[in-house]
């Protein structure tokens, strides 16, 4: 599934028309995983529930095997540490996913934010910022949050 780090870092920044379909899919997976990792990183008190929610979201979104999900998450964590902004990731997501798929990513991000039972101010800020970069309407944003709360049993 995942190739070496250099190839993936190049693929994430490469124009879509110059990449192979496999490279575009890997770059899209990595961009999505980085956004999910950013939710974990934005919480000052990260715990294992958020990591497990991230793994579950990646499994569900991409139908990956367990070892592939672990490797993708590890790569996303390293990539997130070196990232200066979200644009290269959100632009990849905007090019690669439909409106409904982007809303689903926001819902996954909310699931991670709600995994520990509370949403920090940093998580809330990140969610608003990413939703705006993904051109998610306020109604879809709120709907995704409500579904994530229900999934977490926080109604």
Automatic annotation (TrEMBL):
Signal peptide: none annotated. Gene3D superfamilies: TerB-like. It comes from the Bacteria. InterPro entries: DjlA_N (IPR007791), TerB-like (IPR029024). Pfam families: TerB. Residues 29-145 form the Co-chaperone DjlA N-terminal domain. This is TerB family tellurite resistance protein. It comes from Azoarcus taiwanensis.
């Amino acid at each position: 599934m995942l190739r070496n780090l250099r190839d993936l870092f190049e693929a994430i920044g490469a124009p879509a028309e110059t990449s192979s379909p496999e490279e575009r899919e890997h770059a899209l997976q990595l961009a999505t995983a980085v956004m999910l990792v950013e939710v974990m990183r934005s919480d000052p008190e990260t715990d294992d529930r958020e990591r497990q929610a991230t793994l579950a979201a990646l499994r569900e979104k991409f139908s990956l095997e367990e070892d592939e999900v672990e490797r993708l998450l590890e790569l996303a964590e390293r990539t997130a540490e070196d990232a200066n902004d979200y644009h290269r990731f959100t632009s990849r997501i905007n090019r690669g996913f439909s409106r409904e798929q982007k809303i689903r990513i926001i819902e996954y991000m909310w699931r991670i934010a709600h995994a520990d039972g509370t949403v920090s101010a940093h998580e809330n800020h990140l969610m608003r910022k990413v939703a705006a970069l993904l051109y998610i309407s306020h109604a879809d944003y709120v709907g995704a949050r409500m579904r994530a709360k229900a999934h977490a049993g926080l109604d």
